[in-house]
Amino acid sequence: MTSNKIISEKKLNNLIVNFREGRKKIILCHGVFDLLHIGHIKYLEKSKSFGDILIVSLTADTYVNKGPDRPIFTSDLRAQALAALEIVNYVLVNNNPTAVDLIKVLKPDIYVKDIEYKHNNDNRFKKEYEAVISSGGVVEFTNEAKFESSNIINKISYEPHVVKYLEKLKNKYTIDGIINYINNTSKYKVLVIGDLIIDEYYFGNHLGKMRRESIAEFMVDYSEKYIGGSGIISNHVSSFVNEVDLLTLIGDREQQKSFINKNLNKNINQILFEKKDSPTSLKKRYVEENVGYRNLFKVSHMNDRELDNKTTQKINSKLKKILPKYDLVIVVDFGHGMINQSFIETLTKYSNYLCVNTQINTENKGYNTIDKYPRVDYGCINKDELCLVNKTKYEKSHIMISNIMNNNTIYKLAVTQGYNGCTTIEKNGEIFETPAFTTDALDSLGAGDAFYGITSPLAKLNIPMDLIGFIGCVVGAINIKYVGNQKIVNKAEVIQYAQSLLK
After folding, report:
1. Which of 1, 358, 369, 393 fits a disulfide with 387 by CB distance 3.0 to 4.6 angstroms?
2. pLDDT tens across 114-136, in order?
3. pTM, two decimal places
C-alpha cells in the first residue's frame, strides 16, 4: 500500500536506526514535486542508484513560494504521487522552509540535488549542504534530462501571450542577473515621505435596506486593521533595503502611535510630525464576505486641509537638512493635505533621486496629478491617473505616455494597468509592455503601492525598464492574493516567484 510509505519524521527516524544496523545506505531527496513528470522520475532513479533506502521529503504547502497559485497540488496529493513510485521507499511532508532540520535529525548518508544547485547562489541549499557535511554525509548531484515543473505549469496555466513574453525574457536575461539586481538595492539609504493611512476592514454581510429607512444595514462578523499609505510602502521597501526612514504626519488626537509602532518593520526609523486639529488618517471599509470580498462602502476620518505655515516651515527646515543624505526619496502623495507646493519645491531641489507616486481618489477629487512635480526621476501611476494628466480617456496608452514624457521632466515612468499588467518607459527610450501574471485577485487594493515601493530602488539602480515591469508585476501578483495591506511583500518570495516564471 502506498499509504504505508507516507510517514512522520519521528516514525522514520525510528526506522533509520534499524536500517543503519543492517548497513543500509540512506538517500534523501527534497523538493516540491508539484507536477510529477519524467524529469523527476529520472532524478529519483539516479538518486536511488547511490544507495539502498530512498526517502523523499516534500516541502509543505505553506512554504512553497513559487507564485500565488502554487502549489497546484496539496502536500497530501503530492505525497501520494511519490509514494506510488516503486523506487521510493518513504515519503514525508517537511513543515519547514528548508530541509536543514530534517537533515540534522535523519543524518542521511547521501543527499541528492540536481546539477543546477552545484554552482548557483541559493542560500537555502548552502545551509542544507553544510548540514549534510556536518552530519557526516555527502552531497551528490544528478545531471539527468531537464524537465522543469514550473516551466510545464507556466505553459499550461498562462495565456499564449504570457508564455511568449516569458520565453522572450528568458532569452534576454538570466535569473541570476535579476537576483543580483534585486540584492544590490539593499545598499541604499531611503526616505519615504507622504500620507500615512490606517486601513480598518469590517467583514460581514449586507442585509439590505432597512424597512422604514433609506439606510443600508450591514452585519459585522469581524474586523482587521492594517497600516497603509506611506506606512505600508515603507514596509515593502524595508524588506529590500537595509536603511529606511519614514517622514509623515500623524494627528494631534487619535494618534494611533502604538499601532503604528507595532505595524512598521523594525528597520524603519520614524520621523513624525503632528497635524493640528486632526486625527491620524483612518479609512474604514465595509466588505461583503459572501460575494468575493466586495467593498460595499467606505468611511474616512481625516483632515485633508492644507498644512498651516508653522508646521510647513518646521518640516521644510528638516527636509533641507536631511534630504541630501538619502540615495533616493520615495514620495507617497495621496492628496490628503501633507505634500504641499512648498514641499514639492524642496523635494525637487534637494533630493538626489526623486520617486513620485500621485494617487487620485474620492478625497482629492482628481486634483492630484504627477505633472505638479517639476522633476521626477521615477514616476509610478495607474491608467486612470495617466488619463487624468492627459485630460482624456479615449487616446491610446502609448500616445498618452509619450505626451506625459515629452511635456514633463519625467525620466522614467511605470503605468500600472491592473489585469493588463503594466507599461514602462525611459525618456527617449523604448516602451515595454509586461503582462499580468495572475488575474485572480482577492483584493487589488495595495498592489500598486507594493509595485511602486519595491521598483523605486530598482529604478535608482538603473536596471532596464522591461525588468522593472517584470519585477513589478511579480510583486503585484503576490500582493493581490491578500486583503488590502495585509501583506508585506518580501525579497525571498519575489525571487522565488521570478525563478518559477523563468524556468
Report:
1. 393
2. 888 877 777 788 899 999 999 99
3. 0.79
With contact defined as beta carbons under 8 Å apart, do 51 and 84 qualify? no
Query: Cα-Cα-Cα-Cα dihedral of 288, 294, 295, 297, to 10°?
Result: -60
* pLDDT tens-place string over residues 223-256: 999 999 999 999 999 999 999 999 999 998 888 8
The residue type of 312 is T
Q: Which fold would CATH assign to domain 2-148?
A: Rossmann fold (3.40.50)
Distance separating alpha carbons of residues 108 and 315, to the nearest angstrom? 61
Q: Cis (ω within 30 of 0) for the bond into 457?
A: no
What are the domain boundaries of the chain?
2-148, 185-196+228-276+307-485
C-alpha cell at 484: 488590502
Q: What is the longest distance spanned by two Cα atoms in the chain?
A: 83
Q: What are phi and psi of 200, to 5 degrees?
A: -115, 125
Q: CB within 8 A of 485, min separation 6: which ones?
A: 199, 226, 227, 228, 232, 445, 446, 449
Q: What kind of fold does domain 185-196+228-276+307-485 have according to CATH? A: UDP-N-acetylmuramoyl-L-alanine:D-glutamate ligase (3.40.1190)
Distance CA 494, CA 473 (A): 10
Contacts of 137 (CB under 8 A, 6+ apart): 103, 107, 108, 109, 110, 111
pLDDT tens digits, one per residue of 253-295:
888 899 999 999 999 999 999 999 999 999 999 988 877 777 8
Question: What angle, 0 to 180 degrees and rounded to 10, lies between the N-to-C axes of helices 447-460 and 465-479?
Answer: 150
CATH topology match: 2-148 vs 185-196+228-276+307-485: no
Taking the C-alpha atoms of residue 405 and residue 426, their distance in angstroms, rounded to an integer, is: 8
Q: Which class for 267: exposed (0-12), middle (13-18), buried (19 or more C-beta within 10 A)?
A: middle
CB atoms under 10 Å from CB of 432, counted, come to 18
How confident is residue 157, by pLDDT bands cut at 50, 70 and 90?
low
Instruction: With beta carbons less than 8 A apart as the criterion, state whether 375 and 348 touch.
Output: yes
Q: Give per-residue burial for 300-318: e unless 16+ CB within 10 Å, then b.
A: eebbeeebeeeebeebbee
Interatomic CA distance for residues 333 and 364, integer angstroms: 11
Overall average pLDDT of the 338-359 stretch:
97
Residue 218 grid cell: 450591514
pLDDT for the residue numbered 328: 98
